[in-house]
Amino acid sequence: MQGSLSFYQGCFRRNVSVVTIYASLGEEALCYSLNETEVTAVICGAKELKKLAEVSGQLETVKYIICMDDETPSSASSVAQSGRWRVVSVADVEKLGRENPVDAALPLSEDVAVIMYTSGSTGLPKGVMMTHGNVLAVVSSVRTIVTGLEDKDVYLAYLPLAHILEIAAENVVAGAGSAIGYGTPMTLTDTSNKIKRGTKGDATVLRPTVMAAVPAILDRVRDGVQKKVDAKGGLTKKLFDFAYARRISAINGSWFGARGIELLLWNFLVFRKVRAVLGGRIRFLLSGGAPLSGDTQRFINICLGAPICQGYGLTETCAGGTFSEFDDPSVGRVGNPVPCSYIKLIDWPEGGYLISNSPMPRGEIVIGGPNVTLGYFKNEAKTKEVYKVDERGMRWFYTGDIGQFHADGCLEIIDRKKDIVKLQHGEYISLGKVEAALVVSPYVENIMLDADPFHSYCVALVVAAQPALEEWASKKGIAYTDFAELCEKEDTIKELQASLLKAAKAARLEKLEIPTKIKLLSDPWTPETGLVTAALKLKREAVRKAFFEELSKLYES
């Protein structure tokens, strides 16, 4: 929950383990997580409190609710009156602390700091147990790499603290004495979905200097800028395209690329307006949570004039894994191992990924070191499946991600074991790789590819990008009553398929990787719908379950 870093630190000071649960979890997963960890006190907002009140009869150990908002829903008050739990405000807690000061009960390195429940892309969520040693290993490692942080910096936080990337980032910036401002993904920029027309987004108001961003957000920024440039056309578009091409030439080493005074000129004439999208003061961006496309990384880097350092890690490794160098101009890579991590690749013959591959070794990524967490809470079987201890006592986590090491030691994520599906005639298809290639279509807000061993082709569910599609319909003179109707029209589907084919050809996809049939959807996938995580990553099994009938019809037709 936004703004709760102080609660984290307060609990750490008293050696109280913190349990984090995504507010977007369904009722079953929410009750399961709270009961499994025997939680006695919950910190939440009024919206989450209303949800808790609805399932209060299923919560076995909850006694106290600390509400971050001034007003509490009537349903929660009724539960409190029944004596089932007590609802208190943040002000009440602060008063209690002032009147009853206690000494610190500082934790040991091996004590559990956080039990972080994953968003549960399949089945019930798993609680990852992180020790204080795990957290400090990652935070101290990042501080040795990102050395320029200072107390004048301003960090914009919009991910929930139930996300490991946000815990690591906020602790790093807090340790440097930087200020933290809180926003949300839906109010981030002036054109975000939840921003009232004529008002400003979080970034414009806060004017941050530092941000941690997930690829989905950066993709939206890139698409928004590109659409504005295309809409203005004329001289504005020509200037932008020329300035961008000059910067690309410079980065690629061309003598004729924009440098020095010319670079300052283009920054002032063209890119200054783009930088205003995120407040105009960004000097450093961290991207994590999912692979960032090379095109988006290069675009944001040039337009914002600030480095984007990609990182790679998982909840199970306390966000620690790799981190790219500040001055690394390459794209599509996630950097070298951070100081607290050891990384190796192991063969995965079924997928054709071997450390003997040429020109680069490839295989499943395995991470070891003091950042590797204890395992899953009350789930020894799953813990033994993916956590291994070698003969030297080193603890390793088997990620399920496929990577390759470049000659300079940088890691590149190229696939994921769970995303690889064998088609009817024995060909393998990587769902995630294809989705990353097709989502660049201007008409696509989100996409999920689907394939199975009983068919020789794949299909796709496509969430349409409403502004771009409505603009196309207006130019074509297509009449419709609402966006849902537009998405059902045959001409619209043909236009989408043509756009996907164009993106597929640009990415050099094989014919079998291009979806034969698509279902166009008008409603966006948000964390509230349960179809994507808080980091906006696809929850594949949840989407399959929600759109089972639509997928079945695609295969039948």
From TrEMBL:
Spans through the membrane: none
One GO cellular component term: endoplasmic reticulum
Keywords: ATP-binding, Ligase, Nucleotide-binding
Pfam families according to UniProt: AMP-binding
Domain AMP-dependent synthetase/ligase: start-end pairs: 8-377
Reactions catalysed: a long-chain fatty acid + ATP + CoA = a long-chain fatty acyl-CoA + AMP + diphosphate
UniProt-recorded Gene Ontology molecular function terms: ATP binding; long-chain fatty acid-CoA ligase activity
The keyword ATP-binding appears for this protein: yes
Tree of life domain: Eukaryota
Family: Belongs to the ATP-dependent AMP-binding enzyme family.
Protein name, per record: AMP-dependent synthetase/ligase domain-containing protein
Lineage per the UniProt record: Eukaryota, Viridiplantae, Streptophyta, Embryophyta, Tracheophyta
